[in-house]
Amino acid sequence: MAFEINELIAESNREFAESARGLIQSESSLARLRRLRDSVPGFDKPMWGKLAAAGWTSIFIPEQRGGLGLGLDAAAAIATVIGQMPIPEPYVAAAIMPAIALLELEATESVNNLLARIAQGELICGLAWQEKAGQLNVSDAATYLTREDALFRLKGSKKWVSPGNGADGWLVQCSRGDDDVLVWVSCADKGVTIELVRRIDGSFVAHLTFDVAVAQERIVASGSKVRSALDKALDAGRFVASHELLGISAQAFNMTLDYLQTREQFGKPIGANQALQHRM
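Above: the chain sequence. Below: its structure as tokens.
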């Protein structure tokens, strides 16, 4: 029996999931996915605007902060559909994780501005926090921020940042003395170097190197709340990404089942063989 993908989605979110499925069917074919996989950055901004217009980038943001207020489970429903019908746009990395980090911070003018631009699809933002292989959790940053006359100087590097090329900028974790600091860095800033790294699925991440002058207003937050916000963002990203994996698994199962029922050998479907039935 085929795996009903809607059973993975809470009933309250199924209508939104169907809307997401319809958007992908009309706007992002497998041919588009394969074409963009061989290009840089591997996705396109006009499509990101369509996702934002459909509410994908604001669905979990509280209404009082300019979103739809439907919670992370609604975002997870979208991710389940993405697993079933892949798109190249970095939904978890650019819509979920940076917004969750910002929601955990004090609602300053700079935080609200970044959050609103992410929700509206105007800003494609990544989190830059990893610095070494095997780093799974946020720890002390070797990337550092120092005073330089009226500005600050950000120096260091971050690994496996998504999105990399194609992002408008990044929320970069760094240190200043004993404090964690979160800084907004634009892709257009002088002193940003982007090295693209292709992942096993053909998509890209980036190694970023910074030697950037930073104005005071670019410092988004500092202190213990920075690490707490990043931890919440990583947890949310893993939660939503796990639903994308559920969608992938269900779709792979259904494709295999369909093949077993239609592929014939010796005059009967190969799925009639008991050894294959046991595997399903």
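Strands lie at 125-128, 144-148, 151-161, 169-176, 179-186, 192-198, 204-214, 219-222, 264-265, 268-269.
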